[in-house]
């Protein structure tokens, strides 16, 4: 019965998020809607948990599941009344493909399957084993489930640290455990694994709106091929959840670049807002750079100014409640109190370079990016009418510079030198830049057969 409860809750969240995606995108692409369902529902879920936290309502099956059921019912009625809009970039038809393309696609699928088989075993079949998860992430979820309220312990007597962290991660684990007589670690990690699976499927399907199947597969494979990222698919840390939200938002931004349709910018903003509720880095790595991109759109692209301001305001409105709440409770908006102490630490510079190019956590990712990022910039600047294609790249570069600043100009240099968190954070710009350059090169260098059809 406990397994059935978790499955039913997951299906409810999946349907709810898919209906929201249907209302935003106005498309009948069923697999795209289903893939976006869980990431969107996870965000709505944390907003519900936040409301109950403000009102002091206990987190029970009734208080958590009834709102989702009501919202799903309303969304279903609305979805039936919404007509499908014309899509400039709906879905490129699958081509027969050459023999080499089919072999490459099969190879990519095999590599992706290996990553997810490994991650499924570690996330679902094995108990929580990551150090930070046992002292903060899953531990905080378990304590909050037992308390029936989000835990904000100011000490570590009960085994959790950093009460200043936002709680999308925790809220999702708590919700899927409703109906259980006691904490179910497998269900808590399984919902996060499903979130990862659906997020990367969603990224692939968004890319399929403007890329050939093989090109989209290669792009996703290159991202999942970053060794550290594949390890994080085994769950336990919120870094992978944060990264998935960034990549979904970035993929939507790429889709907006191709189509100019405001709905993609709206969806991009929703995923950025979700990142603010996931980890403190969501504010500085996600919301602030994204708002700079939207401001650039408003300034330099007059035809999109209205959509930029509207969706920027929506994203801020969906994000601002958490920082205001944290500050009102006396919490920091950074992981450590010393993060605002700025001074150059040159002793960290060798480790920054060795970590990117020598330690193995990123494989060949930074070697690839060292060549392709400048190449892409030069090519785009040569085509004056396509400079908006630099906007997604600018986001990844801003995050890269922010990570470098954090570890070379703040006391966080200690976490660089002891390899505690630098690699996890550098994984984020690596994946974002990889998505951007792979999608750009694929779009500008289509297979021979595609060119002939065009």
Describe the structure in your own words.
There is one protein chain. This protein has about 450 residues and is mainly alpha-helical. The chain contains 21 helices and no strands. The protein has helices spanning about 1-25, 30-55, 60-80, 100-125, 130-135, 135-145, 170-175, 185-205, 215-225, 225-230, 240-260, 260-275, 280-300, 305-320, 320-330, 350-355, 365-380, 390-410, 415, 420-445, 450-454. α2 packs across α7, α4 (about 100-125) packs antiparallel against α8 and α11 (about 240-260) packs antiparallel against α12 (about 260-275). It is globular. The model is unreliable at about 445-454 (pLDDT under 50).
Extract low-pLDDT stretches: 447-454
Instruction: Please give the count of helices.
Output: 21
Characterize the overall form. Answer: globular
Tell me the Rg in angstroms.
21 Å
SSE sequence, one letter per element: HHHHHHHHHHHHHHHHHHHHH
Largest sheet: none
Structure classification: mainly alpha
Report the mean per-residue pLDDT as an integer.
90
Helix content range: over 70%
Number of strands: 0
Beta percentage is: under 5%
Oligomer: single chain
Euclidean distance between termini CA atoms: 54 Å
């Amino acid at each position: 019965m406990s397994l059935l409860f978790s499955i039913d809750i997951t299906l409810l969240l999946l349907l709810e998020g898919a209906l929201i995606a249907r209302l935003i995108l106005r498309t009948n692409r069923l697999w795209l809607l289903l893939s976006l369902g869980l990431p969107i529902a996870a965000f709505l879920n944390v907003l519900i948990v936040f409301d109950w936290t403000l009102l002091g309502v206990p987190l029970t099956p009734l208080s958590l599941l009834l709102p989702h059921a009501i919202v799903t019912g309303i969304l279903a009625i609305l979805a039936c009344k919404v007509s499908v809009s014309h899509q400039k970039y709906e879905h490129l038809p699958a081509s027969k493909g050459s023999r080499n393309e089919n072999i490459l696609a099969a190879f990519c699928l095999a590599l992706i399957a290996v990553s997810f088989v490994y991650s499924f075993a570690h996330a679902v079949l094995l108990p929580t084993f990551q150090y930070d998860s046992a002292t903060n992430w899953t531990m905080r979820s378990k304590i909050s489930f037992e308390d029936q309220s989000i835990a904000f312990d100011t000490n570590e007597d009960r085994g959790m640290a950093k009460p200043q962290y936002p709680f999308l991660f925790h809220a999702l684990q708590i919700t899927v455990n409703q109906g259980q007589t006691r904490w179910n670690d497998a269900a808590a990690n399984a919902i996060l694994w499903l979130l990862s699976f659906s997020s990367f499927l969603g990224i692939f399907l968004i890319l399929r709106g403007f890329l050939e199947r093989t090109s989209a597969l290669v792009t996703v494979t290159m991202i999942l091929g970053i060794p550290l990222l594949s390890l994080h698919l085994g769950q336990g840390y919120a870094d992978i959840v944060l990264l998935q939200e960034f990549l979904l938002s970035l993929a939507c931004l790429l889709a907006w670049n191709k189509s100019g349709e405001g709905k993609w910018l709206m969806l991009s903003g929703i995923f950025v807002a979700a990142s603010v509720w996931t980890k403190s880095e969501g504010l500085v790595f996600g919301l602030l750079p994204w708002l700079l991109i939207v401001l650039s759109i408003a300034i330099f692209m007059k035809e999109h100014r209205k959509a930029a301001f509207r969706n920027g305001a929506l994203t801020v409105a969906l994000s601002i409640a958490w920082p205001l709440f944290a500050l009102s409770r006396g919490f920091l908006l950074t992981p450590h109190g010393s993060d605002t102490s700025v001074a150059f630490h040159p002793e960290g510079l060798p480790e920054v370079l060795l970590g990117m190019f020598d330690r193995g956590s990123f494989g060949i990712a930074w070697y690839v990016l060292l060549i392709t990022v400048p190449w892409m910039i030069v090519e785009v600047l040569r085509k004056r009418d396509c400079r908006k294609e630099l906007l997604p790249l600018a986001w990844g570069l801003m995050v890269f510079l922010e990570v470098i600043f954090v570890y070379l100009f703040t006391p966080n240099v200690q976490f660089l030198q002891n390899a505690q968190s630098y690699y996890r954070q550098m994984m984020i710009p690596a994946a974002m830049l990889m998505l951007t350059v792979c999608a750009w090169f694929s779009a500008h260098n289509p297979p021979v057969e595609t060119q002939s059809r065009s």
